[in-house]
Every structure is written in C-alpha cells, then in structure tokens.
Amino acid sequence: MRVEFDRETCIGMFQCVDEWEAFVKNMDEGKADLVGAEEHDSDTFVLEVPDGEELDAKFAARVCPVDAISVYDDDGEQIV
Ligand code: SF4
Predict the structure, then answer these.
(1) pLDDT digits (tens, 9 = 90+) for 9-42
(2) Is the CB of 16 under 6 A from ligand 1?
(3) Ligand 1 centre from 32 Cα, in Å?
C-alpha cells in the first residue's frame, strides 16, 4: 500500500496527525509533513505504508478536509 500526499493542497488543519503518526505538524509552514516520504513531483510526497499501519493511513486520508492524502493498493488502484 502506498500513500501520496499533495502538500501544496494541505491547509494545515492537522486532522491527519491525530489518525496516523506518520503525519506530523510543521507549525513554521502551516502544513503537515509525511515523515520518511520521498518527494516525487514538487510538493507531492510518496511513502510505502509500513505493515500494520494500513488502517491508520486510510483514516488519515479520509479525515483530510481538502483531500490532500490518497491511498493506493499494491495494484495501483486508489482506495481512498
Ligand atoms: S488533514 Fe489534510 S489539510 Fe490537514 S494537515 Fe493533514 S493533509 Fe493537511
């Protein structure tokens, strides 16, 4: 499972931070950071979801009010 984080879209509401510890607050920039993610396009960050954290990743994606977080299964299908 893979998560993609569109950081440009993020408005720093930080609901995701409460759902999954991979997301942390960056108060200086008013945005979340996705710890350990690789930057693919400018401001799009991608992370392979560690085993056991799949539910948390999905919850984080669901609570984001601006849909900045997407989750894909191993076949590349978007699930959230
Ligand atoms: S919930 Fe969405 S808008 Fe809020 S900090 Fe997380 S990614 Fe950004």
Answers:
(1) 999 999 999 999 999 999 999 999 999 999 998 9
(2) yes
(3) 6
